[in-house]
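Quick start: load a record and inspect it. Here is [Ribosomal protein bS18]-alanine N-acetyltransferase:
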Amino acid sequence: MIEKYTPSDLEKVYEIEKLSFSNPWSENQFTEIEDKLYLAKEKGKILGFIAIDKILDEAHILHMAVRSESRRQGIGKKLIKFALKLPAKKWFLEVRAGNIGAQKLYESFGFKTISRRKKYYQDNDEDALIMELVV
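Running the structure step on this input writes:
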């Protein structure tokens, strides 16, 4: 079940964040976008989250993560399916060049790589791939 984020969810969301990324967002960054966050929950437990920014007919998946023990169970797909129900003609996201699993997930929805940002990630100078979906 996908639900809107509430401030009381911050601790659990941040726990997923820290375990999912080598250079995690700060708690303050989540607070700044709390109106853009949605959660995948099962039996009250947060399994993952997605942050979506929509302006006019374009949308951007700002951030997404799934609890490690819940990966490969369709949670990421559910989050993206939820996002894509929002009315937007173009969708964008950035993904690490080395995150092949995430790239394959996005490609399964029709996202295509349109450009590369060299040394985008500061923790290891990894490139970011910019992906786009036109609906």
